[in-house]
Design a protein that fits this description.
Length: 214
């Protein structure tokens, strides 16, 4: 998803440095200082316009959330929505989620959310998918021993690819749904903007998995 550059985005981000980080490397080992309370850390990679992570932070005040997004204009929109009702347990980071092991300590995270990640349908772009092996290697470094990845998508091809990628890594599945919105777990589901837009057109797939640590 490429978004038109918004001229207000950069100055808006610079004016709200209390809630957004643009130099994540300088917070290595210091993320808890960005929050009011030290609490388990949950990270969403590809947070988009922030609907999911903002609702999660409201629902779970005992967790510290970080929303990572690559595109300045997109994260600025998330930040603007967030600033209507700021919360002490949510921070945004403008950066590439491929580098999480450069700014989180080993085993620092309790959970990683991947929601409606870009599908990169061409086989030659497989390595860019956020559920491909090279990303899993990075997530394994920063997730705690019992940490989990929660992945949702409407894209059947990406879901099939991800099931194989997670299984081959190897990871263990805790939950798999081929139709989240018609399953009992939907009661606790927090929708993302893409989920809201695309769920009327077909099923939402979800999995939860953890790494197998020897
Ligand atoms: N998660 C949101 C949702 O479900 O509505 C947005 C989904 S959108 C299809 C994917 C988002 O992931 C885009 O905003 C894109 O810029 C972001 N993204 C893609 N690759 C990324 C990466 N390596 N690091 C951080 N964000 C990334």
């Amino acid at each position: 998803m490429r978004v038109r550059k918004k001229p207000w985005a950069r100055p808006y981000i610079e004016d709200h440095q209390d809630y957004i980080v643009t130099d994540p490397d300088s917070y290595l080992g210091k993320w808890q200082e960005r929050f009011v309370k030290e609490q388990p850390l949950h990270v969403e990679i590809g947070t988009g316009k922030g609907q999911f992570i903002i609702q999660m932070a409201k629902k779970y005040p005992d967790v510290n959330f970080i929303g990572i997004e690559l595109q300045e204009s997109v994260i600025a929109t998330a930040l603007r929505t967030f600033m209507e009702e700021p919360l002490p347990n949510l921070q945004f980071v403008l950066t590439d989620g491929a580098d999480v092991d450069e700014f989180f300590k080993p085993h620092e995270l309790a959970k990683i959310y991947l929601n409606f990640s870009d599908p990169w349908p061409k086989t030659r772009h497989e390595k860019r998918r956020l559920t491909s092996k090279r990303f899993l290697e990075t997530y394994q470094k920063v997730l705690s021993e019992d940490g989990t990845i929660e992945f949702k998508t409407d894209n059947r091809g990406l879901f099939e690819f991800s099931l194989i990628s997670f299984n081959n890594y190897p990871m263990e599945f805790e939950y798999v749904s081929l139709d989240l919105h018609n399953s009992p777990e939907n009661e606790d589901n927090i929708e993302t903007e893409y989920e809201h837009k695309f769920s009327p057109k077909g099923p939402i797939y979800k999995l939860i998995a953890h790494f197998i640590n020897e």
